[in-house]
Amino acid sequence: MEFKSSDVNQWKEALSLYDSRIESMNKPDLESLNNFYCKQLPSLLHQRNPNPHLTTPELSKLMQWKLTRGKWRPRLLDFVSSLDEQTVKSASEKAFKSLPEVSKAISELTVLKGVGPATASAVLAAYAPDVAPFMSDEAMVAALGNSKEYTLKQYLLFVEKLQAKAKELSADGDLFTPSDVERALWSSAIGAKFEASSNTDIKSSKKKRKR
User: Fold this and answer.
1) Quick check: is 201 in a domain?
2) Within a 10 A sphere around the Cβ of 181, how many other Cβ atoms?
3) Which domain holds residue 86?
């Protein structure tokens, strides 16, 4: 599925396959981490009224989810796991209060060691999926053509594109958030990867039979 596609049914199908794509990756703990990130964390954050915030163990688990679903970089996990509880609470509280000003919210979170724009975007997406999508490689490639630059400037461009796409897909009464758009793009990219690798497997097994 291409980013420019306006076929709402195509987007809905890709989004509906998100959980099964997570499952098919066969990565240890990914399903439970994904359940924590997508279902438990958002409600935990919103229950903390009037000052929603994130805790260090939650940030650590969020980082595990991000690295397990994407590229594994254990040093980042070490950094965030050793952050002071009060520092994480304060930074996340300020970030959530800054929304919908995404630029300021990201800047409040990236003061934390090990937290770059991509991890900060995952924190914001858990709290405000209707404003800030997660900056995944797959969605960056689909929306912007590359995923090499993990800067605030690049993220703001990404947010703009995904917010516009969510608005376009919601025009006829369906409700799409920028985070839904990101998950649909990720699901579509992972599906295409699986298809390509299974086609390669079929071709190589045919070659073996011919020998």
Assistant:
1) no
2) 27
3) 25-194
